[in-house]
Design brief:
The complex is a heterodimer. Chain A is α/β, with parallel strands linked by helices. Helix content of chain A is 31%, strand content 20%. Chain A has a single domain, classed as Thiamin diphosphate (ThDP)-binding fold, Pyr/PP domains (Rossmann fold). The longest helix of chain A has 18 residues. Chain A is globular. The N and C termini of chain B lie far apart (33 Å). Classes of the chains: A alpha/beta, B alpha+beta. The structure holds thiamine diphosphate, iron/sulfur cluster (3 copies) and magnesium ion (MG).
Chain lengths: 276, 82
């Protein structure tokens, strides 16, 4: 039986009957969820967001499953289709604040085409993509973000393909906000999400996460603390980095920061005729 | 039904650090990120078979909340004692 009485400062934002999560011990996704809820809590307590208008949408995977744990309206939809579901919701009710969570496989792979066109159309929603470099929930198959050379369940002799860089991809389109943080820097996840919550249009935050159980096993970092510490060593915060600096290179490091900030008219603003 | 969740809690001087025993998954991240080494793995066994941390060196705690912010399982939190 879960501990259902509220004790932790974030408990009011959680469905306590579903805690502990199904996540493996030391999975970075829980760290990220905590940071997101602190930012949301701040916006709600400042009166900027009505919690009844918040809608979380997730596809399939460990990352998408986050929406299962939040004490808000939430939809757990089919793999890769969280963005079109959120689009339908905000078109039907433009007062909603749609927050999409998903893995690198769900958002950049299976739902990759939705990502491109949602960014191009500057659709009013926040997309949080958790990059753990594999399809984790199903056992660590190669993902479109898997670095070259890494052996996964489906690339036992090393991944021969080049990965997609979601920050560069989304940044090259019409998104109003593109940022990247890491689970080893929860304060930046909180800061960037807080900023995104105050903006309009398409907002994309990539969170580099740790998956000690599956990805860690593939790269020899099975221990949660070891994986956390190896990732933390490689994360470099930069003030307003360029999209060229978004390259993910495990040896040379991973730049985090706010890559793109724009105030282009959003799809809802255009449809309402308030901006063109 | 669980009425009273059991906490492993220590207070001295300025801060109280509390661990929700049955939420901990013994990942060790809080112990690793604490800059002062306040936390030590305890011999307590929770209902899932994990050993939660114990803030044994609480008198040295600086209240930075890094343990709270880096726990993936909402299992540890820090309060200022007034
Ligand atoms: C249409 C469809 N194809 C495949 C699957 C199987 N499947 C479930 S989760 C998953 C991987 C998800 O990977 P990712 O989005 O990276 O999330 P992670 O688990 O890594 O957080 C896959 C392929 C599915 N559920 N539906
Ligand atoms: S498989 Fe990986 S991503 Fe999924 S819960 Fe376990 S550690 Fe986290
Ligand atoms: S608040 Fe900071 S110093 Fe105190 S136990 Fe937590 S991490 Fe350690
Ligand atoms: S970080 Fe949380 S789950 Fe991990 S050992 Fe500490 S209290 Fe337990
Ligand atoms: Mg993944």
């Amino acid at each position: 039986m879960a501990v259902t009485r509220q004790i932790h400062p974030l408990d009011k934002h959680l469905r306590l009957e579903r805690i502990p999560t199904l996540y493996c011990p030391g999975c970075g996704l829980g760290i990220a969820l905590g940071a997101l809820l602190r930012a949301l809590d701040k916006r709600i307590s400042e009166g900027a967001i009505n919690p009844d208008k918040v809608l979380w949408v997730g596809g399939i995977g460990c990352s998408s499953r986050m929406v299962f744990y939040v004490n808000y309206d939430a939809a757990h939809v089919i793999h890769g289709r969280a963005i079109p579901f959120a689009l339908g919701a905000v078109l039907a009710n433009p007062d909603l604040l749609a927050i999409v969570t998903g893995g690198d496989g769900d958002i950049a792979g299976i739902g990759g085409n939705h990502l491109i066109h949602a960014a191009r159309r500057n659709i009013d929603m926040i997309v949080l993509m958790f990059t753990n470099f594999v399809y984790a929930m199903t056992g660590g198959q190669v993902a479109p973000t898997t670095p070259r050379g890494v052996s996964t369940t489906t690339t036992p002799r090393g991944n021969p393909e080049y990965p997609v860089n979601a920050v560069k991809l989304v940044g090259s389109l019409n998104a109003n906000y593109v940022a990247r943080a890491s689970v080893t820097t929860p304060h930046y996840i909180e800061q960037f999400f807080y900023k995104a919550l105050g903006m309009r249009g398409f907002r994309f935050i990539e969170v580099v996460s740790t998956c000690p159980e599956i990805y860690g096993r593939h790269i020899g970092l099975r221990d949660p603390v070891e994986m956390y510490s190896e990732l933390r060593k490689r994360i470099k915060y930069k003030h307003k980095p360029s999209l060229e600096e978004a390259e993910i290179d495990w040896e040379r490091g991973i730049v985090i920061g706010e890559f793109v900030e724009r105030s282009n008219p959003s799809l809802i603003e255009i449809l309402k005729g308030v901006r063109s | 039904m669980e009425a009273q969740p059991s906490l492993l809690s220590r207070t001295t001087g300025k801060y109280r650090v509390s661990v929700v025993i049955d939420r901990c998954k013994e990942c060790g991240i809080c112990i690793f990120v604490c800059p002062i080494k306040v936390l030590v793995k305890s011999s307590v066994l929770n209902k899932y078979g994990y050993h939660p941390p114990d803030p044994v060196n609480i008198d040295k705690c600086i209240g930075c909340r890094l343990c709270e912010y880096n726990c993936p399982d909402f299992a540890i939190y820090v309060e200022k004692v007034v």
